[in-house]
Write a structure and sequence with these properties.
This protein is of the alpha/beta class. It folds into three domains: about 140 residues, ABC transporter type 1, transmembrane domain (ABC transporter transmembrane region fold, Up-down Bundle); about 190 residues, ABC transporter type 1, transmembrane domain (ABC transporter transmembrane region fold, Up-down Bundle), CATH 1.20.1560; about 130 residues, 3-Layer(aba) Sandwich (Rossmann fold), CATH 3.40.50.300. A hairpin with a 2-residue loop joins strand 11 and strand 12. The longest helix has about 55 residues. The radius of gyration is 36 Å and the shape is elongated.
């Protein structure tokens, strides 16, 4: 039975949804050059202060950027104003009897042009040519300053983002395993993609656009006021109308746009899961149900996109028409002033341009606010990771010594959650070179013990020692380089087979890598690959079988030469024939190493020096294979098949 729309959205809308368009035709959430919604920042002041710490390293470049912004705005306004004396001269040339009373700024512009000509009585066409030459020079200054502004701001933003990304990645290397267990991988990854991209967009575009818009707004208002205060008052009266209309539409558009994003996230999440699980879909004949559920999500997305795009689409026409009304009223009143108050044609032409230009910075700033809030919210999420408690050693962790592998757990009690104990009073020992096996049901605590050996977590009670030294007194880096781990879930990095094996010890020679591969019974299949040890692996070794990936994982542990070895279900992903090959290699690998083995296949632990049977975090039986069989307890039942591991 197909699930309802509410059930599907609840399950799948967490997926990242690339944006389709925001209100007013401005920057769109999602994708490069846009913004994904990240909510609003909770501590804006502190977040801004921390961002300024990155940007502030380039304060002199920022000073030049702001100077260039101001210069670009001033030259743009001045260039517009240079048209006034030109039009006035043309008017007088055509209508000598016309009465013109230029404003102080018009007189100033006229005097500047005349100073270049050396006379105030120059021919009108000579005057115009000189004025246009000066206008061209002003525009060139503006273009140059705009170029410098863009280039310098780009260098500031990219250097700041690079430093932020570097600090974030460096912090991830210091975070404990507990952090990654309690935070989804996709959520952590979104800090590097979504959140930092939002900050990048803000620094590159939104910040400069907002500051430039404010400078343009103030400058335009001053020039308008100095040209004609009556027309300035009329233009200002229309601002509340702009704000009310734009705000109302933006609120409606934002509401429907949020719904569109949720619906788009649900569609993307559903498609991703169905494509990934296509084999399962076909095995159980769920094609029709999948199609029905997809249609439900797709129709909902269509309806929400229609509403979001409709309100986003009418923003431009409504604001444009309101601007035209303001422009028409301004021109009408300006014409009356020309006839009754001696307002100049040049002044009206320039003011008309300023009137149209005045609303642009307001729209520009309002459109950038959502970008800025999204970036600040993203920065807050990035800084939350940076503020997470790192994995640290205590002051006494200074003992660096050759580790032989005498491992002891003394009355160890531990819980991932302090209110729920996982291990209860665990005590065991392993002499150098011994093999200790853990068997028991899923959730009995087997893997937890090996996690504690690596100090992925710290115990609440008891003590773990290696060669008589509490592992909390050993630096984590020294501890871990002496413990090799083969996990049930293999992970191979992008690179050659040689590089993946060498990951166990970066200074290993090619000969040592090959020897480790032979030890793990991986050499034969590696040599059958297209380029042998130089074969490039991608996609976590997608071109290898699961068993081959595990063999490389074992070879990686072999090359490390660590005196302590942990095998967590190392042979669970391979077939019986491959397992026999591995066991021969494992015997060589475990020689002279203290080894801890977790296995569901009891045949792999028969030759262990000691076998620990765990249930609900307690060791209920211990001994070697023969001793445990003689006890005819839990291990005997497991081995003879009377009960099964579950």
């Amino acid at each position: 039975m197909a699930r309802s729309l509410e059930e599907l959205q609840k399950q799948y809308r967490h997926a990242a949804a690339p944006g389709k368009g925001g209100p007013g035709g401005g920057p769109r959430p999602g994708g490069r050059g846009g913004v994904r919604m990240s909510g609003k920042p909770k501590n804006t002041r502190q977040t801004i202060a921390r961002l300024l710490g990155y940007v502030g390293k380039y304060k002199w470049r920022l000073v030049v950027v702001f100077i260039c912004m101001a210069l670009t705005t001033v030259t743009s306004l001045l260039a517009s104003y240079m048209l006034a004396p030109i039009i006035n001269r043309l008017t007088l040339a055509v209508m000598p009897e016309a009465t013109i009373d230029p404003s102080p700024l018009e007189r100033l512009a006229d005097r500047i042009i005349c100073s270049f000509l050396g006379t105030s009585d120059a021919d009108a066409w000579v005057y115009i040519v000189m004025a246009l030459s000066i206008l061209l020079a002003v525009y060139l200054i503006g273009v140059t300053s705009s170029y410098l502004q863009s280039k310098l701001m780009l260098s500031v933003s990219q250097n700041s983002i690079s430093a932020l990304r570097t600090d974030l990645f460096a912090k991830l290397q210091k975070l404990p395993v507990r952090y990654f267990d309690s935070n989804a991988t996709g959520d952590v990854m979104s800090r590097f993609t979504n959140d930092i991209d939002n900050i990048d967009v803000m620094l590159n575009n939104a910040l400069t656009s907002t500051v430039s818009g404010l400078i343009t707004l103030v400058g335009t208002f001053i020039f308008m006021l100095s040209t004609n205060w009556i027309l300035t008052l009329i233009t200002v009266i229309f601002i509340p109308i702009f704000a009310l209309g734009g705000g109302t539409i933006a609120k409606l558009s934002s509401k429907h746009y949020s719904g569109q994003q949720y619906a788009l996230g649900a569609v993307n999440g559903y498609v991703e899961e169905m494509v990934t699980g296509q084999k399962v879909v076909k095995v159980f004949n769920h094609e029709d149900v999948c199609q029905e559920e997809f249609d439900t999500l797709n129709n909902d997305l269509r309806d929400k996109q229609f509403k979001a795009q409709f309100f986003g689409g009418i923003m431009g026409p409504i604001m444009g028409n309101t601007s035209q009304i303001s422009y028409g009223v301004t021109i009408g009143v300006g014409g009356i002033l020309m006839c009754t108050a001696g307002f100049t044609p040049g002044g009206l032409t320039v003011f008309a341009g300023y009137s149209k230009q005045f609303s642009m910075p307001i729209n520009q700033i309002s459109q950038q606010m959502s970008t800025i809030f999204a970036a600040l919210a993203g920065a807050e999420r990035v800084f939350a990771v940076m503020d997470a408690d790192p994995e640290t050693d205590r002051e006494s962790a200074t003992q660096v010594f050759p580790i032989h592998g005498d491992v002891r757990l003394e009355n160890v009690t531990f819980g991932y959650d302090e209110n729920k104990t996982v291990l209860h009073d665990i005590s065991l020992y392993a002499h150098p070179g011994q093999k200790i096996a853990f068997v028991g049901s899923t959730g009995a605590g087997k893997t937890t013990i090996t996690n504690l050996l690596n100090r992925f977590y710290d115990i609440q009670e008891g003590r773990i020692t290696i060669d008589g030294v509490d592992i909390r007194d050993i630096p984590r880096s020294h501890l871990r380089e002496n413990i090799a781990v083969v996990l049930q879930d293999t992970h191979l990095f992008s690179g050659t087979v040689m590089e993946n094996i060498r990951y166990g010890r970066l200074d290993a020679t090619d000969e040592e890598v090959i020897e480790a591969a032979k030890l793990a019974s991986a050499h034969s299949f590696i040599m059958r690959l297209e380029n042998g040890y130089d074969t490039v692996l991608t996609g976590d070794g997608a071109n290898l079988s699961q068993g081959q990936r595990q063999l490389l994982n074992i070879a990686r542990a072999a090359v490390s030469k660590a005196p302590i070895l942990v095998l967590d279900e190392a042979t669970s992903s391979v077939d019986t024939r491959t397992e026999r090959h591995i066991e021969h290699g494992m015997d060589r690998l475990m020689k002279n190493r203290t080894t801890f083995v977790i296995a569901h296949r009891l045949s792999t632990v028969r030759n262990s020096n000691a076998i620990m049977v765990l249930e609900q975090g307690r060791i209920i039986e211990r001994g070697d294979h023969d001793e445990l069989l003689a006890m005819k307890g839990r291990y005997y039942q497991l081995y003879t098949g009377a009960i099964e591991l579950a």
